[in-house]
Amino acid sequence: MTGADALFAILVLPVAAAALLVLLPGYRASAWINVAASLLTFLAAASLFVLERPAPGNFLLVDDLNIVFVVLNTFVGLTAAVFSASYIGHELETGRLTPANLRFYHAMYQMMMFGMNLALTSNNIGLMWVAVELATLSTVLMVGLYRTHEALEAAWKYFILGSVGIALALFGTILVYLAAQPVLGEGTPAMVWTNLIAAAPRFDPAMLNVAFVFLLVGYGTKVGLAPFHAWLPDAHSEGPTPISAVLSGLLLNVALYAVLRFKLLMTANAEAVAPGPLMIGLGLLSLVFAAFMLYPRRDIKRLFAYSSIEHMGIIVFAFGIGGPLANFAGLLHMVMHSLTKSAIFFAVGNVAQIKGTQKLAEIRGLTQSHPALGWGLVLAVLSIAGMPPSGVFMSEFLLVTTSFARAPVLALILVFGLLLAFGALLLRLTGVAFGTPTDEDHPMAGSLVPLWLHLALIYWIGLHMPRAMVEWFQTVAAILG
Amino acid sequence: MHDLAFDIAHLLAGSLVLVSFMMIYQDRLYALLNTFALQALLLAMAVAWQAFTRDAPHLYATAAIALIFKAIIVPWALHRVVARMGIQRTVETVTGVVPTMLAGMGLVALSILLMLQLTEAAENPLAREDLAFALSVILLGMLMMVTRRNAVTQVVGFMSLENGLILAAAGAQGMPLVVEISVAFSVLIAMIVIGVFLFRIRERFDSVDTEALDAFRGERR
Predict the structure, then answer these.
(1) What is the b/e burial string over B145-178, where b = at least 16 CB atoms within 10 angstroms of the residue's CB?
(2) Is the peptide bond before A227 cis (omega within 30 degrees of 0)?
(3) Pick from A217, A418, A411, A258: which is nearest to A326 by CA?
(4) Which of A104, A181, A193, A271 to mutate to test the interface with B (most CBs of B within 10 A)?
(5) Which residues of A touch B175 (CB under 8 A)?
(6) Helix (H, G, I), strand (E, B) or coil at A124
(7) CB 3.0 to 4.6 Å from A231: which of A158, A239, A458, B131, for a disulfide?
(8) How many CB pairs under 8 A join A and B?
(9) Which of A124, A152, A164 minimises the CB distance to B199?
């Protein structure tokens, strides 16, 4: 098998699985086919590390940067599929979903994975846009899956805001093409990313500046940056929980990846405006805003949705500061956030099923009634709040120290936001995890394996980051400039 | 001959902006849908004219999609949705017509100033003005989405925004994937229309603000 085959497999497996899943009626078989397809996709993605990479074409590309994203994407896609397989049957029993819904759900799951993998491996800014749109559409359908008033309103809001965001991103893409066309000539080559980055120093800087603003606002809406975040809490809290995990852990990363690609284009052109300050501003705004919004939350999934806005703010801030150390911190934080946040949603899905509610006030004493689940949730929330020795602590520590050295005032705001969010999360965690347990209604159906697997990874990386991973991240951080 | 070609392209792109203004002051749903159909027709003509003068046959496909799908099928489907679901026939606005029109003029002035200055170096005057008009249509479409409450009018605002994008993409010389992008957008719009119909999104959503759902989730004290 060559790298080209692996790349091909990453894209074709999800599409083939989606086509198969549309045809299959039984949900049990579908759930395991979903897992199997995700596993094969993950293996194909992981094999890109060792296989020789295919040469970049007009449409697809594998490089040091996107391998990290693709492997993370397919890994969390796999664990979320495993969790979903054990979880989703319960939704059928309680009558929240019908068998037809589930058939649709599994097919859409693979379509979404396809959209995200395509966006991450595309070498063409037009194709990347189409892929992000595909991933958005399939998640919109999943968010509205329960068909309740709230779910439909959340899906509608996500749809409208996501579409506007994506429309602005397309306008930015057209402007990038217009900047490239005098240099690279008409036609497809002027939309190929590897050509663009090579010729970027000769582009019209004014055109690039305006294009970047549109791209940042457009794809930034999908990243969930404040003030364009309005869709995010609703979409996360109303859809099925495995989808919340995927939305938070993966889809936000895909949009972030698009922003990073265009940031590279901007930094390659010496005369264009530096993209850093814009990203720092949006990042800090999201962090502080979300940290305040964590306090009044009454719904457990909305709580962690706001926490995703907060962490996306931290990551965008890190990449905005730039430089080898901050980029390293940003990458590590992105990986850790994906793993931790999806672990939290795996736990929250079980909690919501046991208690039959998402209201924080009605969930009490989980560590007593369900030790494995409760302590798993405690460890995951401590990790996302940034307690040592988790990987999140490591990346936040690295980011705070580098930004104190480079921009002390910004670092103060960063620390303020981090502490504020830390307080909110711990406050809510104590309520949920300790105290006298409330009555439970339902037995636990969802598997705890994905949760503890993620936790093991998070704390392993936090305690002892493998040498190979450090070197890899250092290379990528250097590319990011 | 070249000047005539330029004038016609200019006229068509300019009338798209004009129709966007017409959409802002419509207060009846059916009239709004008809105005949208007119805009889609103008878009189809503008794109077809580009295809003809620049000898770019693939743009005819984009023009055909705009004509058949957006000027005929979608307005017809939305007419039926409105009739079948008994949606209120008047358009509910957040602000009055006059402030909205003034804001619209401000947005058009802004986009023309921005785009003409930006593309000063470009050798092709058509691309410059097309881009300025396209951005105006995009911004006016966004304005319409913000100032309308009802789901159907928000959809119309979005489609008008998308008309601006297609105009921009068609105006960018030799841009690849234009046809693919217009197909992708058509899929998106078809899904919205089906969504409105199937999920019976007839309730108006007062805002696209997070606070609105906080109330449902018991988060408002």
Answers:
(1) bbbbebbbbbbbbbbbbbbbbbbbbbbbbebbbb
(2) yes
(3) A411
(4) A181
(5) 174, 177, 181, 186, 191
(6) strand
(7) A158
(8) 132
(9) A152
- Residue B199 to residue A147, Cβ atoms within 8 A: yes
Cross-chain CB nearest to B154 (options A147, A160, A302): A160
Question: Which ranges of A185-247 would DSSP assign to H, the alpha helix?
Answer: 193-199, 205-223, 231-238, 241-246
**Angle of helix A391-406 versus helix A408-433 axis, rounded to 10:** 160
Q: What distance in Å separates the CA atoms of residue A204 and residue A176, rounded to the nearest whole number?
A: 10
Instruction: Report CB contact under 8 Å: B210, A233.
Output: yes
**A167 contacts in chain B (CB < 8 Å):** 138, 158, 161-162, 165
Which amino acid does the sequence have at A136? T
Flag residues of chain A having pLDDT under 50. Answer: none
List % helix, strand, coil for chain A (3-state, nearest 5). Answer: 80, 0, 20
This model of the complex carries an ipTM of 0.88
Which pLDDT tens digit goes with each residue over A262-294?
999 999 998 888 899 999 999 999 999 999 999
Return left, alpha or beta for A409; rule: phi > 0 is left, psi -120 to 50 is alpha, else beta.
alpha
Q: Report pLDDT digits (tens) over B74-121.
A: 899 888 888 877 777 777 777 888 899 999 999 999 998 888 887 776
DSSP symbols for A21-44: HHH---HHHHHHHHHHHHHHHHHH
Q: Chain B residue with minimal CA distance to A154?
A: B213
Tokens read off for A187: 């036609």
